């Protein structure tokens, strides 16, 4: 009897630990996604998300989660101009663990590159960038191609800054060539860079074409956070073509977008204000020239210094104010150790008592005990087989989804009958095509993944989700995939 109790106790502990680990992984992924989404809108909020993801990863002891969250944390620090702490995060990570995954290696190399580049460490920057591209050129996946575009983008930008527009053009064309095969996640920025390079080559007609593509990309995806860089490009285009009034309007729109969206791009504000001052100087408007010159100097000398002081203090608070939290963790760990020791001693005591009692029992009772143990073992084996069968079904279901197989919906209805029953109770006329789409969302595939699996555009998937939200009155602030998953328990 004791053996059965011990088996059940430890099986429950293992199961609860596994469930907790899965929840931590989901929590970390969600936090990292939130950090990425808020990266350029609210740098401090983005850093908080990344730090929280890192804390959960450390607590779980999952090496992959620790690597991912450290990379995110380092990148947020770079965006917040804390280059030393950003590089320190990567250095500490490499001291503590070995990174085997090639994609994660490239993420680390990218962080090294952008930091070294800002710090003017050209040899180290180029070494990191070359390794970054070398790894990605050998990986055939769509995600790797997206990252490779960034590598070519970085090279193009370096050559552009050195006024080597011919080489810059070669690398930005490599990025655009990939874009003809894979939908670019950085399409607008790539078009912007190409337009600047065309201006450097005095190819103003081509520059205008790619500028128009950048604005069209911003319009389609409503990428308001980044649209100001398209207006900045427009300002430079009209300046180079000597249409100064349109250039002024575009640069003023750049500053207006930055202000209205509360974007922290101090370098853009400084350069745009300075350029407006230059234009007004050419037009002989001394008053406006002085106004924008003062604005440029104000941001470069006073505001930026004040911003960095507050930023460093906030970052230091987020990263290093851990004493109270560490005390709580230490106390909790002591209680866990105490509980484990208590249960161990209690279990051993019961075992000794029951063992002595069993020696006094007759052969019938001993046989009964053996049968009970065997029954428990058979039940455990049965549960193991059921669990493996469920895992196999889920793996097969995911594989069918990725291959857009018509058998996907058949297996999905078999594995998740409760979900099917509940959705049909809401909409009895739901079609198999709709069920297929709902199944992909239920399995938590992203919009991009659904688009890839079903051979449609991301915009088409987003539109379909929008229509479904209206059809079922799904609140706009409710996660679409989570709503579908909750139907299983409706």
TrEMBL record:
InterPro entries (UniProt xref): Sig_transdc_resp-reg_C-effctor, TPR-like_helical_dom_sf
SUPFAM superfamilies found in the cross-reference section: C-terminal effector domain of the bipartite response regulators, TPR-like
GO molecular function terms attached to this record: DNA binding
Coiled coil: 361-395
Keywords, sorted A to Z: Coiled coil, Membrane, Transmembrane, Transmembrane helix
Swiss-Prot/TrEMBL GO biological process terms: regulation of DNA-templated transcription
Spans through the membrane: 335-354
Domain of life the protein comes from: Bacteria
Protein name stated in the entry: Tetratricopeptide repeat-containing protein
Species assigned in the record: Epilithonimonas hungarica
